[in-house]
Amino acid sequence: MDGEGDLAAALLGLKERSGLSYQQLGSRVFTSSSTLHRYCSGKGVPGDFDLVLRIARECGADPSELSELLRRWEAVTGEGPTEPGSHTALAPPPSAIPPAAGSPQRTPAPVVLHPVRSRRASRFRRLALFLGMALFVLTTAIASTPHGFDSDPEPVPTGADRVPALAAAASWARPPAPVDPELFGVTMNSYSGAMPSFRVGALRLWDSETRWSQLEPRRGEFDWTTLDRLLEGAGRQGLPSLFVFGGTPAWAAPDARKAAYPEGARAAPPNDLADWDAFVRALVRHAGARIDAYELWVMANHEHHYNGSVKTLVEMTRTASRIIKERDPDATVVCPSVTKLWTARAHRFLTEFAALGGYQYCDAAGVKLYQRRVTDPPETILEAVRKVEQTFQKAGYHLPLWNTGTTQTLPLNDPLEPEQAADHAVRFYLAGLYARNWGLQRMYFYAWGNGKIPIVLQAERQPPTKAGLFVGVLQQWLAHARVTSCGHGPEVSLPENVWECRFTAPDARGTPRTTRIVWAYSGTATVRAGTGASTVRRLDGTASALNAEDSVQITERPVLIEHTVAPSA
What we know:
Blueprint: H1 3-18, H2 22-29, H3 33-41, H4 49-58, H5 63-77, H6 119-144, E1 172-178, E2 184-188, E3 202-205, H7 212-215, H8 225-237, E4 241-244, H9 273-287, E5 293-295, H10 310-327, E6 332-338, H11 344-355, E7 364-367, H12 381-395, E8 401-403, H13 418-434, E9 440-448, H14 466-477, E10 482-488, E11 498-506, E12 512-520, E13 525-528, E14 533-538, E15 543-545, E16 551-554, E17 559-563
Parallel strand pairs: 2-3, 2-9, 3-4, 4-5, 5-6, 6-7, 7-8, 8-9
Antiparallel strand pairs: 1-10, 10-11, 11-12, 12-17, 13-16, 14-15, 14-17
Helix pairs in contact: 1-4, 1-5, 2-3, 2-4, 4-5, 4-6, 9-10, 11-12, 13-14
């Protein structure tokens, strides 16, 4: 086999072992799927070993495989970077608008004068490659060790002003896709039937007096009054509803541990699973198509909500899914939600549930994504999303993810200042949009109706807060938009602390235009408005005209920048 074939075979072997498609792997290493296919089929060779390093890391290569990749790459190229100072590059000015994440930059090739090939240059090249390999091995070792997860059940960062570093927020680009209104969900912390007065896209019923123990207080006797009020309210608003199972009645598990609810609900499966089947059947028969989706247990790996075996939970999932689908084939079945996703214990639970076949009975996987500390930037949830994706890949599942809430200790935290609360509420949903590259489809904010939590969108019988109003404005911005990319920092030619997502959206005449939502992870920064910039819109409803040369001050509050000319692909 020739040198190119040797390198291609090694790359293809890694790619196949990872289980990633060309599109998935390409998005992670910032190259197109077609280019990646050329490298894996021997029709092209990466010109930069850094790309080979990125491919190897995403595919889980070990140090010996990395050394072999370097040997094969050197055998094919026969040369590497020239010695610093050995050539002069005439680079064009950067594009006024940074290119979309993952898209090639169309810049003229630099003019190279008198390249020097010397033993000194060769030593420099090998040193650079050695340092790159050393960094790769170090980061891979850190990522693969059990310490990649926290063992503490409720890890809290130390230091009053600490801003957590992001371990997994890769930029991405893909064909335009609609922003589904259902992304913007809220959990209903109310049982009156009142609905949000600002724009939302979906409802989740939990802490809404609809636990199993409340709906079936005695075996075979059902009280649907509260559930009907809530479903009628959702129907008036045209909002899809997610029902959450949890809180086994005391009569079904009298000797089990009590859950933290006044009616004496139990944090355990029923003694007789026939009681579970009967309740699921009665609920689905009563609600019919008024319930769009079912979350099959709440915080299933938290002993305060479920302390039975995983095997029993899988059996409950299997029978509930069968009953629901028999009655309503269009209903979405969401597997029991899992919390504390920064911990190794949570991922062992995911792995065991998958190994026992639990996820084969569901249309989506329930996860709890929240900051470790309520004052942390919302984007820190992306670390947990990526870890979940990796665990599912190892288990052989690729289900959509639904973020169905937060930690049960949330109410113990102090309220955020109103301005920070408004910024974080909007960025909670933007983080969810960013995470769609890893399969996230729904974000349910906890909670609507509660006025005693760190971020209040709207307390019941009160007007929306600034946070609630801003969430409504964000949805207006994205009502007819199609997302094309999300990225941050130098990867997309932005300052280190700046994030953005790009969209195409019709203007008043229906002509597709490029828009960008831009914000700072922390602090502030200044960016150029860029080619075709026409308007910057703010969440408070104000707007200013722009031209390409204007500077835009970016803060932790997202802004929308509209362009009349789309950036080059």
